[in-house]
Amino acid sequence: MRNYASSYQVMSTKMPLRVIFILSTLLQVLTAVGLTGYFSFRNGQKAVNEVATELRDEVAARVKERLLLYVETPHLINRLNANAFELGQLDTQNTQYKQKYFWQQIRTFPVITYNFYGSVTGEYLGARRLATGDLQVMERNQSTGYNQYFATNGQGDRTSLIQALPNFDARQRPWYKQAVAAGKPTWSTIYRDFSTGGLAITAAQPVYDKQGKLKGVLGSDFIFSQVNTFLQSLKIGTSGQTFIMERSGMLVATSTPDPTYQITTKQTQRIKASESQNYLLQQSAKHLQQRFGNFTQIHNSQPLDFNIQGERQFLQVTPLQDGRGLDWLIVVVMPEADFMERIQANTRITVMLCLLSLIVATVLGLQTSLWIVKPIQRLNTAAKELADGCWEQKLVIEGSDEIGELAESFTCMAQQLKELFETLEQKVRDRTQSLAKINGELKNRNALIRQVFGRYLSDEIVSNLLENPLGLELGGTRRKITILISDLRGFTATAERLSPEQVIAILNFYLEYMADVITHYEGTIDEFMGDGILTLFGAPTVRANDTERAVACAIAMQQAMIPVNQQMQEWGFPELEMGIGIHTGEVVVGNIGSEKRTKYGVVGSHINLAYRIEACSVGGQIIISEDVLSEVRDIVQVDAQQKVQMKGVKDPINLYEISGIAGEHNLFLSKSEEQFLDLPEPILLQYVTLESKHVGDRWYDAEIIQLSCREALIQHHNLDGELPAPLTNLKLILLNNNLPQEAGEDIYAKVLEKSAPEGSFYIRFTGLPPSVRTMLDHLYDAISLELKRQLETAL
Fold first, then answer.
1. Burial (Cβ within 10 Å: 0-12, 13-18, ≥19) of residue 362
2. What is the pLDDT of residues 698-746, one digit of tens each?
3. What is the C-alpha separation between 448 and 57, in angstroms, rounded?
4. Before 540, cis peptide (omega within 30)?
5. For residue 443, how many other CB atoms are within 10 A of its CB?
6. What share of the chain is helix, strand, coil (3-state, %, to 5)?
7. What is the value of pTM for the model shown?
């Protein structure tokens, strides 16, 4: 409040009195009209939100209620047909009688499109409803394998053969296999219909005899087009929409005429909601995917809102599950603009009234200020002359007693100032010269300090040194901070094959990117250690969300590796991979060293532990300790957990690999699964363990039997020997005679904590010479192409 008053006082002293008078009048008018319009708009918007919420809930409830009717009816029909089998009504060899039975069922229940039965012996019969409403019966000719479709009369008797499709076997259809596997009533996955090529979903139920032996499978399909028709009949505001999709993101039905699938000559291609031709539907699906990361994370009905090109949208997502394998999402979305038109019109009227009031208030303020300000302007002119050195002032003010008294006081003050000025003028001149000299020296010193030390210390530490008189004193304080340590994987081996100029260029480019990210998240770079970075959160300045920002910073640093590696590729250098470790603990922070050489740093066992946690990571990973997880558990995405025995720590500790953080940061890493392929011929090798930077004294024989893009499965030759422990660093040499000469260079890798077959273990490459990288990539691509060719030949 004090700062506000001071700012107002400064502003008013620089502004003419006439302007202040007019502005005060305008401010009152503007405040009254503006607040009225604002609260009117806000109340209208609040009412819109309430109406939109009720409408979303109502539409979602109606859709869910109607869908439950659709999905219950096919299972009801299956139960009726199963009862008929148990009572012996369908245990007859009269095919036409059974066909007529299914024909009666499909005529009775208009929500289904197919009703059929497939037996273990290959028999298949039933009835179907065409899009025109005509009913047909169908039968598989077991002698030819053709699926035949017959027209029917009004009594359900078949008349003429309409269609015959070859190579049909009900036992190979998805609905049959999935019902047999479930052993109970279930829904099939959505699949391509055999006759039409469109999409179908079947309520399937296995039928058993009294001995529990499978007799066949009953099936009923309901019509997706009826769901589309129902959704299109809903009135959702002016332009609201609703759609249904699976947890995979594939569309099931929509309230728009846009297609949910495409039929080609060989297959039916389903369309994802995020790739729909309808823009509102597409953006709604993308928002849900971005909000939850995965559609499987939506467990209950949730009202949401988001923006499309600055326009607010109301959204409601509701899960639909029936306990038989059906798991869909109902989404209702409506633009806020559908409800805001009248409110925005009222707002425009309010703005016009406000402008009219401002014009009237301005005219009245100008007229009123003229007779108030004119005498004061004379006094102002005299004051300016006094400032110019005209000490003799005699003011005559008429028509105002108060201003007349002010004029007399002003004249007296001018005489006293003249006497005082003559005495102080010389003193002020002398003092000004002295202060100017001191200020110049301080300015030059501070500029030199910032120029010299700003390249080695963060701006925060340099400012602390300059602004705090005790900033250069030795000593420290005990404080809980979060430590982030990053390091490039295998860069030492890469640097040995490059010139010093190239190494420096790569490091400078990489460190510049990382420093920008760290600065953005208010971290303090304590030290660059070659290709490693020690970053502090909580020193020298403590903030409430230090640990959260450290995790977000780590994810942003891994994301920044994408443009870094794009530049590496343009320069013709190998890609860089970075591992990150984060730990929280109490350390001593402060100035360390002597009076001649001082460094701002941290000391404590938690620093060493942070380095060891970072050493457990591989390229692209972020590993955090239990202490870090306890502070950000609710907002981080944990991918894996491992228990590691650390050197210098009595008990094993839990480490966690993370790939994302929600909340205000909302950052997530894209993860890809490693696809391992068997090598047609193992690659022989020898390996030795590395302890810190030292090479072990024993070499072991082994071979690579499986390969992925960045990892490999190693088969140990000495079966009686002990396998290397997880997280152990290895040095490898390839031995195959048919490999190029460059493949004999040293390779570095880390043992992964993955379950592997007996006598084998997984590794992740951390340092590969370019020639070896190229050789392994070509080998992996060749095996992939061969497997693809074999698969296409088999199909």
1. middle
2. 888 889 888 888 889 998 887 666 788 888 888 888 887 766 655 566 7
3. 66
4. yes
5. 10
6. 45, 30, 30
7. 0.44
